[in-house]
Amino acid sequence: MIRKGIDFIKSMKEGHHGEIYYNGEKVSDVTEHPAFRAAIHTVSDYYDLHWKDEYKEYLRVYNPDVGEETSITFFRPRNKEELRRLRMGISKIYDFYRGFFGRSPDYLNVWTMLFYAHADDYFGKVFGNKMMENVIEIYREAAKQDLFYTHAIVAPMYDRSRPPSQWEDPYIQVGVVRETTEGLVVRGAALLSTAGPYSERLWYLPNIKRDTDPRYSVFFSLPTESKGVKFISRRGFHPKEEFGEFEYPITSRYEEPDAIMVLDNVLIPWDRVIFYKKPEEIEGFMWHTVNLRGWFNWHFVIQHYSRTKFLAGLAIAIAEAVGINNFINVQEKLGEILIYLAMYEAGMVASEELGEQLPGVYRPNPQIAIATSSMGMKALPRINEILRSISAGSSIPVPAGIRDFENPEERALLDKYLASKGLPALERVKLFNILWDTIGSETGMRYEQYDRFSRGDPTIRWAQMYTEVYKDRKQEFVKMVRDIMDQMPNPKA
Ligand SMILES: Cc1cc2nc3c(=O)[nH]c(=O)nc-3n(C[C@H](O)[C@H](O)[C@H](O)COP(=O)(O)OP(=O)(O)OC[C@H]3O[C@@H](n4cnc5c(N)ncnc54)[C@H](O)[C@@H]3O)c2cc1C
User: Fold this and answer.
1) By alpha-carbon position, which residue is closest to atom 12 of ligand 1?
2) Domains of the chain, residue spans
3) Which of 237, 450, 453, 461 most suits a substitution to test ligand 1, by most atoms within 8 Å of the C-beta?
4) Which end of the chain is more exposed for a tag (fewer CB within 10 A), N or C?
5) CB 142 within 8 A of CB 112
6) Which atom of ligand 1 lies nearest, measured to the CA of 190?
7) CA of 282 to the centre of ligand 1 (A)
8) Which strand (E) or helix (H) includes residue 175?
9) Ligand 1 centroid vs 313 CA: distance in angstroms?
10) What pLDDT shows up at residue 208?
11) 247 phi and psi, to 5 degrees?
């Protein structure tokens, strides 16, 4: 089944979500709450895209794994052509989002599909038939019902100098408290659950490499409405006072609420568990057989390719409107953005072209996908810096709101003093409102943190290019030097 936006809103209204705390209150109707309303509207748009004529051919597919038509975002690519098809579908979605809203339903649909693709050669092989069946059923449920997942995988920031098992309370990180005949009882919290308050399912998949204590070695999927699942929401960045879409064009479309996910003695039924008690198997999950890292970074490349197109458009529009586009220093900066754009496009296409054919799935080239996505951890904040630099102090003095244009006396002043060579005042203010909401507002700053940290810490990720990603190939490069060293003459003995 492919849902419509209205089906998703109905599901939220019926309470198919976790308990949500916002500023000391429990949220009863999440669809009407000002902190979540815009995001729910955007998710609803995501579902509706699947029904629009210009998107249908990209976003809908007959899915042989479930025997019916589903969203392309659940589709398991079996060859290069099918991976391209999946990528083009995701690209359509992110062009619609202008590269924002990275925790739209498609993100975790790809994860759920990926686990299904490795049901046999990883989950079955390592954890046995029961876990394999769980993976298959969880995928079929998600794809058939077009469900919306959140995920949270990082332990709270209690004390990073010690592993969570050595903290005063070892159940700050989510851990198994006890086993029962029905399942596992778990307790703890996880960061950072973007979209948690309006999601219907959750994936909990911790990076257990940081702490191999077996109580943390558990991955599962769960309905968020299960007893004990709670989301403590951060402050909403939604427009305050009388302001709205004119003043906050990005926030009012793409503000993505984040929350702390708390699992308060939650029962995880056995048929929702997919990984248990074998911490050493994380390597196969993250880096080898399943290679989750390769896949989620590939998704980031697609998101961020769309975003870079949007940011390039923003920078060029500003430069051309205010007549700075002929300065060589500005051209150099616009060129820099376009270089990142080309790198994104190259990484996206090359990870497809040079992907890996496995028996059940064709996957993007992990080295290229991870490298391109990791580049973005520094490239996107740098693009924001460029936008700040070319718009300079003029990014700040923009009239407060749309009503400034409704006052005829003031409008005459605005039309005279806020116009630019290339744009009338109203257009220029619209453009600069987009600019500020991208580089300066709470939403803008949140996205910059997202671009830097949503795949983990950039220092560690860049270092991993050496320690993990190129582990098998790095000696090949050293050999190119070594061979010349071996040919060089040695001193006579
Ligand atoms: C806006 C946003 C949305 C996100 N959405 C999600 C989501 O939906 N789901 C999800 O699971 N995750 C999400 N994340 C990612 C995640 O929650 C963390 O932000 C990310 O994994 C980094 O962890 P941390 O913030 O605890 O920082 P840490 O990893 O603790 O790093 C903090 C600082 O300490 C340093 N540091 C920490 N440990 C070490 C070490 N061992 N050696 C050297 N230096 C170290 C780092 O360099 C860094 O400067 C999101 C992140 C952001 C910013």
Assistant:
1) 192
2) 5-285, 291-477
3) 453
4) C
5) yes
6) 11
7) 18
8) strand 175-179
9) 30
10) 85
11) -80, -30
**What ligand 1 atom has the least distance to the C-alpha of 153?**
11
Does 450 contact ligand 1 (Cβ within 6 A)?
Answer: yes
Output the pLDDT for position 21.
98
pLDDT of 241: 87
Distance CA 136, CA 117 (A): 9
Q: What pLDDT was estimated at residue 155?
A: 95
d(CA 139, CA 432): 44
Q: Could you tell which of 457, 460, 461, 464 is best to mutate to test the pocket of ligand 1, judged by most ligand atoms within 8 Å of the CB?
A: 457
Q: How many helices (H) and strands (E) does the chain have?
A: 17, 14
Residue with tokens 């072209």: 353
Are the C-beta atoms of 150 and 225 separated by less than 8 Å? Answer: no
Answer yes or no: is the C-beta of 454 below 6 A from any ligand 1 atom: yes
The residue whose CA has the least distance to atom 26 of ligand 1 is 157
Please, what is the angle between helix 328-353 and helix 366-391, to 10°? 160
Collect all residues with Cβ–Cβ distance below 8 Å to 224 and sequence separation of at least 6. 16, 17, 18, 150, 196, 199, 200, 201, 202, 231
Does residue 55 have its Cβ closer than 6 Å to ligand 1? Answer: no
The CATH H-level superfamily of 291-477 is Butyryl-CoA Dehydrogenase, subunit A, domain 3 (1.20.140.10)
Closest among 193, 194, 184 to 220, alpha carbons compared? 184
Of 44, 39, 34, 42, nearest to 9 by C-alpha is 44
pLDDT for 274: 97
Ligand 1 in reach of 157 Cβ (< 6 A): yes
Report DSSP state, residue 166: G
Long-range contacts of 338-342, Cβ-Cβ distance < 8 Å, separation of 24 or more: 338/312, 340/308, 340/375, 340/376, 340/379, 340/380, 340/382, 340/383, 341/305, 341/308, 341/309, 341/312
Q: What is the DSSP string of 430-442?
A: HHHHHHHHHHTSH
CATH of region 5-285: 2.40.110.10
**Helix, strand, or coil (residue 375):** helix
How do beta strands 175-179 and 183-194 pair? antiparallel
Say which residues have a Cβ less than 8 Å from residue 196's Cβ, sequence separation at least 6: 18, 150, 152, 202, 224, 231, 233, 257, 258, 259, 261
Q: Distance from the CA of 317 to the center of ligand 1, in angstroms? A: 34
Q: Which atom of ligand 1 is nearest to the CA of 155?
A: 26
Model pLDDT, residue 132: 98
Residues of the chain with pLDDT under 50: none
Cα of 457 vs centre of ligand 1, distance in Å, is 5
Report the pLDDT value the prediction gives residue 209, as an integer from 0 to 100: 80
Residue pair 108/151 in contact (Cβ under 8 Å)? The answer is yes
